[in-house]
Amino acid sequence: MFLPKPRLLTFHALCAAALVLGACTSDDAGVDDAGDGDGDSESTDGTATSDGTGETGEELSEIPALGIQISAVEANQGTAVFIGSEGEWVDAAARLGPLISNRNTLIRVHFTVDPGWVPREIQAQLKITRSDGTTKTFADTRMVAADSVPNTLTGGFYFGLVAEDGDVEAGTQFQVTLEEVDEASRDLAVGAGLLEGTWQTPREPGDLGIQPEPLQLKVVFVPFHHKFGSIDRITDTSEATIKLLTDAIYETNPTHELIWSVHEPMTWEYEMNSLGAVMGPMSALRENEQAFPNEYWAGLFPVPNGGVAGVAGIASVPGDGKGEGAQRVSVTALGNNPGGAANTVVHELGHTQGLAHVFCPFAEAASPDPAYPYQNGVIGQWGFGILSFQLYSPESFYDYMTYCGPSWVSTWSWDRNFYRIRTLTSWEGMSVGGEDQKLILIGSLASDGSEFWWTVRGSLPTQASPFGGTPQQLEFHAKGELISTRPSVVHVLNDFSTTWVMTELPESLERLEGIDTIVRVDSNQQAHPIAAQSVTLSARPLTITAN
Ligand SMILES: [Zn+2]
Q1: Which residues place a Cβ less than 5 A from the ion ligand 1?
Q2: pTM of the model
Q3: Is the torsion defined by CA of 447, 448, 453, 457 positive or negative?
Q4: pLDDT tens, 167-207?
């Protein structure tokens, strides 16, 4: 059913990235992994390897810089996580979010200079020690005229840790130092009365704090073929468009890998009045293709102007249960502005990862999360795109769960998605059965009055939706006789135009045998009958295993 084989998107920072990041290692300079640059000619295996140069081939100086203070050391894989502050190591409890393994990482060194500063070249060094004891020293030498500024990479010192070089792994220690480039430079500083300050952070090497867990995000893009009246459109799934989507997802989510595929187009032969109407059929399809519960199905519906009734995208907001796979679906209107749609896909994927909205003042979104820490929904910390090498200002960008733009990921959303991705990745290689494969009947009620009912193997939601709804009763009738009455859980999808009514079916109702009518009794005691034979029944076996 899948068009191309699932493809793997990882960060391969080769020469181009190394050039931009300046301080990445090159192949010939990278041989000397044990060269720690301190000139002691000792590597971990006792052989002499160090020649006093860093990974970038720069001569390593060993003269503590005078009159300059490291204010903070930032590690950034998408959003700033401070790992050093005022000379001290920042421990896990004080960190804004997690750093993950095997993901390219920008390290920035912010500093201030003392009064009477003499502009001159300063060499910053980043020394890392891996858990196997091997070390690497990176150097970045630049002219320092004043305090660092955070809005450009070259406004301070920076280094690039490259995942595929093994530089971003759990157990890695780090230390940053600032050095005078030579004795003459030091003499100049001494002559100006500059004193030794916070030239190293932390004072002793500290843990970089890389999380060891594998982290994968699995996304299945589902294009649509819309055939209705004179409309005959298929979603644009060109390489360029999909790249916009995958880059946006990868840059803004704490994952090592984004594993994605493009499904065959689903045919839609109805008028499109509500994006939410396609969610049920998509969920039923993922059920019957036995999608594993850690896959996110992201529908892409072709709409030239990029919205339906003012809605650009819609998603369910499931919990982290293994039985909640049926709810890991979203749909985005993909029109003439795929860049805009990429932001929407990221937002909807945020919902399916359990995120509620974030408030911002210019475009109020429903049920914002009151715990969001930054006023007006701004990201609050520097963002960084590990593919684009762009920086995103803390005060001018809004969290992607707001309705305001421009948007980027905040440390808040980054942190929450980390736990969700970690949980879903931990299911790899496991089976799903038992409590997570109960029979659930779902009715999707779209704003245009259309309904779609299907059954899935799964479980009822493990947590309340931020867009909760009043429970409704479901009655099962056979030949005019009421056989069973079931309570339901009601979730309203994020645009408030589509409601999902979910109930667990007893074994006796598994195939709805003998049932001719299901009556939904809403909170106003209004009865809404549907024919039981219109329900799409799950064809999923009782146990499935991740592939
Ligand atoms: Zn939303």
Answers
A1: 494
A2: 0.89
A3: negative
A4: 999 999 999 999 999 999 999 999 999 999 999 999 999 99
